[in-house]
Hints:
Blueprint: H1 19-44, H2 62-69, E1 78-84, E2 95-102, H3 103-113, E3 129-131, E4 148-155, E5 170-177, E6 187-196
Antiparallel strand pairs: 1-2, 2-6, 3-4, 4-5, 5-6
Amino acid sequence: MHEEDEGSAPNAGRVPRWVRPVAVFSVPVLAALLTSAWMFGAFGAGHPFGDDRACAGSDVPLQAALDGAGIRLPPDATDVHFLTHAAPRPGQYALAVAFRSSRAEMEALLTRSGLVHGTLHDMTDGRFVTGDPMDPEGLCGPLPQAPVAEITGQLAPIPGPPGAPARSESGITVDVELGDLRMMREETTVLITSAPGE
C-alpha cells in the first residue's frame, strides 16, 4: 500500500481558474496588435501617406500633385516614384515623378496633353532639347539615362472638386530616353517635373 506524498496537492496539474478568462481576452487583443504592427511595417513605415512610391520629404499625395500639374500618368506606368512639395522653395519642384512606360503610351500622353504637336518619329529635329536628364534633389529611384529629349510647356491644372481654390498654370518638363534611331525608346524611363509658373 502506497501513501500519497505529504506535499502533493489534490489539484496538482490543473490550470488555475483565472487563467482561462485572461487568455480568452488577451489572445485576441494580442493578435490584433501584432496584425496592426505588421500591416504598419509592411505597408506604411517610413513612407509619406503610406504610399511606398513616395520619396522622403513628400508632403502632397501623387494624384493631387498630378492634378496641379495638369497631367496624368500613362495607364501602363510602372516603377513609379515621386517627390512633391506643397510650397516649393526656389530650386524645388512642386512635383518630380519618374516611371517606366512604353513609347506608344508616352506618345499618346504627350499629344493628348498638348505638349507635343506633330509626329515624334525624330526627336532630334530641333523641337526639343537633347542631352542629359535632370536630377531633382531628393527624388529616389532610377532616373532616365542619357541621351534624353526634354519636352517643355505650360499646362492648366486639372480642375479640383467644387469649391476647391483655383490653381495657376504650371510649367512642366518631360524627359524621355532616346534610342539609337532618334526616337523614344520602345520601353522608356520618364521623368516629369513641374513647378507653378515654371
